[in-house]
Predict the structure.
Amino acid sequence: MTVVLTGASGQIGRALASSLRADDVAKSISAHALLFEEFLVREAEAGRLQLALGPLDPSFYMYLMVAGWAQLFGGRPAEALDLAERSASLNPDWDSTYWGLIPAYVQLDRLPEARAALSKFLSLAPGMTVSGLRQLLPIRNPASLELVLDGLRKAGLPD
């Protein structure tokens, strides 16, 4: 049986066929996901494949979070939370995890955990504000950006 892969799945298949290292493929997918958020939501399955490619990679926490953002932006906060918590457990000092973790907690009405995560985030990014993040976050979809910023605001991040 021949399977034709398109989109991100096709990228993975072509890369593997050309003998690229799996972690290089996953890093490429992560970079594209941040640049093209629509890819992240439409091709959430690619995130699952990406996670299977390199769980021993030292950057695995990033792959988990990219998949977590896909879940968050796709309306699945419980799945996003699971992935974000796994990412944070592998690297609790990567501040980008928290702009996925905190909104997931908020969407699940878990404000005490959201506030605790915000405290950790602010220890990593002192002085950060909602308006500062609005300028920094690489989220192109306005609704997704507002979802993240609203979650951070509800957890107590100052405007």
Summary: The longest helix spans residues 22-35. The two ends are 55 Å apart (CA to CA). The CA atoms of residues 103 and 147 lie 7 Å apart. The chain has one domain: 7-155.
